[in-house]
Amino acid sequence: MRKARLQKATYWLMRAATYFIVFVIASIILKVVWNGLGVISWEFLTTMPRRSGAEGGILPAIVGTLYIVLGTMAVALPLGMASAIYLSEYAKQGRFTRTIRLAIVTLAGVPSIVFGLFGLGLFVIFLRFGASLIAGCLTLACMILPIIIVSSEEALRAVPRSLRDGSLALGATKWQTIRKNVLPYSIPGMLTGSILGVGRAAGETAPILLTVAAFYLPKLPKSIFDQVMALPYHLYILATQHPDVAKVRPMQYGTALVLLVLVLGVNLVAILLRVSIRRRQRW
Amino acid sequence: MMKAAGKERAIKVTLFATASTSILIVIGIFVFVGKEAGQFAIEPGAKELLGSRWVPVSFQKESFGLLPLITGSLLVTFLASLLTVPFGVGSSVYISELARPVEREILKPFIEILAGIPSVVIGFFGLVVLAPLIKAVFRLPTGLTALAGAVLLALMAIPTVISISEDAIRSVPESYKAASLALGASKMQTIWRVTVPAALPGIIAAVMLGMGRVIGETMAVMMVTGNAAVITASPFDSVRTMTATIAAEMGEVPFGSDHYRALFCVGIVLLLATFGLNMVAQKVLKKYRMG
User: Fold this and answer.
1) Alpha carbon of A176 to those of A171, A180, A254, B10: distances in Å?
2) Residue B54: which H helix or E strand, with range?
3) Which of A147, A265, A283, B115 is most buried, by CB atoms within 10 Å?
4) Number of neighbouring beta carbons within 10 Å of residue B71
5) Closest C-alpha to B205, from B95, B287, B105
6) Number of Cβ atoms within 10 Å of the Cβ of B276
7) Given this model, what pLDDT does residue A25 score?
8) Do A111 and B274 touch (CB under 8 A)?
9) Count of pairs with CB atoms under 8 A, one residue in A, one in B
């Protein structure tokens, strides 16, 4: 009898733990949406900030974040996809392949602020890019590379062996086989996984703090060697560094909401795509 | 025919070269972070780092003792793990073994969402909701404490812990559970005496990977821990973590100064700590998957 009660208690305890987490997630999102929604207006999204962010809009931060994401993907996507193709299609078991895999696991675990130090040391100072869009994008690209490689490799491995064998048996070369019979089926999966990298790049603050982000810069960037504002950094500045933190609270909520919608929207697209791909591809 | 073979070779070599960039980046990180740290170890000397005071800007004498930063990071990480372990393990057991299928299909992506929320937004939530709450509940002069940082960090580590330990729990062979149930054990007994022990290495690895994420987290921690560089063991004190120190101070230091180099020393400590944790966790995971 006591045992049954104890069982019941553990069950409810675990259930409570799970739903408590759900509750906290929901309250974070609802809090930001609830307080941010009133701030969002056409003006907020499309005008320059005024009086160091206390008034006006957040256009340069939105544009900056979009540029950062596009630049990062332009570097990381080809690199990551090509690495994944090598690992899944060409690499043989051996010391070199093991070293690559070790490097990928290591990269995935490096703290983002250390990527920032690396970007600062290599791109900003050693290569003399200065604090600039290009330095930030290259730094973030290094950071999300493991995400793209791992998810792309998974997509490639999901293509059945028989598709490759059939093509090779007909006399196609290895690359022809990959290009015509493997990539077409795996590209959607590769892109889906990579979208998660986009979300990470858009939301990350610590590395861009050291390599690209400008405190307050009410104009749009003209070249890849310009500094830009970015949404996460803008939120950080408004929330902690602004002389009148309490007064600019609405701007903080607005910025947080735009950032949240951007990042979660991107992740949601990835999740939905994954579901639809799984449904479509039954080998 | 020759031309095609040449092209094939060229493609293979190109792909090989691209795949090597990961190795180059890892080497680059160690070189560029280590370079500045190494110069600090030569010029003011590595002994300087062992001090217990971090006063990087001073009219008399700066001191770059890393101890307060390291203990700050450790305190926050330890407190975070006290929260992460019960919540992470409890809910991964619930989701993988006890929840109904529909419930599971809803809970899993919902908790995945948590992993997608940018750390600066979580930090902002901590600033406007959690810190005032802690201040009121514990009647403190400020809510910006190690405890606030730990709660946020636990929140950020939980999705990692859940997804990896859920994998581990699910990969326990069905026959183990069936055998236990056939011997008359109840469902709970089977879970706690058979399934969880069998999945334990995976769960431990999950917690370690989560902790790796916690030590390296920057923004959320910087926003809510109050950033006082003191050595303390109390969750109600302000602390300054290694990550927050780099992020907060790097913007203001002159390039090439002692302070600048000391921050790279902090970076190398951080890098080695996370590297070590990850390597051990990977070893555990690998061994477990083989067995």
Assistant:
1) 10, 6, 50, 13
2) strand B54-55
3) A147
4) 19
5) B287
6) 13
7) 92
8) yes
9) 239
Neighbour count for residue A116 (Cβ, 10 Å): 30
ipTM: 0.90
For position B291, what pLDDT does the model report? 43
The answer to whether A179 and A188 have CB atoms below 8 angstroms apart is no
Question: Cβ separation of A22 and B107 shorter than 8 Å?
Answer: yes
Span A170-180, average pLDDT: 91
| Residue bearing the bigger pLDDT, B27 or B113 | B27
CB < 8 Å from A in window 56-115 of B: 86-87, 90-91, 93-95, 98-99, 107, 109-114
Please check whether residue B269 touches A, CB under 8 A: no
Please answer whether residues A7 and A225 qualify as being in contact, where contact means their C-beta atoms are separated by less than 8 angstroms.
no
**Closest listed residue to residue A108, CA positions, set A137, A68, A149:** A149
Residue boundaries of the structural domains of chain A: 56-148+157-277
CATH top class, domain A56-148+157-277: mainly alpha
Model pLDDT for residues A116-149, shown as the tens digit of each residue = 999 999 999 999 998 899 999 999 999 999 999 9
Q: Six-digit token pair at A214?
A: 């400008």
The class level of CATH for B68-290 reads mainly alpha
A49: which strand partners? Answer: A56
Domain boundaries, chain B: 2-55, 68-290
- What's chain A's average pLDDT? 88
pLDDT exceeds 80 at position B153: yes
Distance from CA of A283 to the nearest CA of B (A): 23
Query: A61, A236 in Cβ contact below 8 A?
Result: no
CB A44 within 8 A of CB A252: no
More confident residue, B233 or A256: A256
In this predicted structure, the answer to whether residue B2 has a pLDDT above a threshold of 80 is: no
Q: Does B185 touch chain A (CB under 8 A)?
A: no
CB within 8 Å of A8: residues ≥ 6 apart: none
Tell which of A8, A18, A69 to mutate to test the B interface (max B CBs under 10 Å): A18
Contact in structure between A91 and A153 (CB atoms under 8 Å): no
pTM (predicted TM-score): 0.90
Element at B64 (helix H, strand E)? strand B63-64
Q: Which residue reads 């043989």 in tokens?
A: A92
Picking from A24, A83, A267, the nearest residue to B116 by CB comes out as A267
Does the pLDDT value for residue A215 go beyond 80? no
Res B290: pLDDT: 47
Q: Do A109 and B274 touch (CB under 8 A)?
A: yes
Q: Residues A126, A61: contact at Cβ < 8 Å?
A: no
Q: What is the pLDDT of residues A234-256, one digit of tens each?
A: 999 888 888 777 788 888 999 99
Is B1 a residue whose pLDDT tops 60?
no
Find out whether B79 and B146 touch, Cβ atoms under 8 Å.
yes
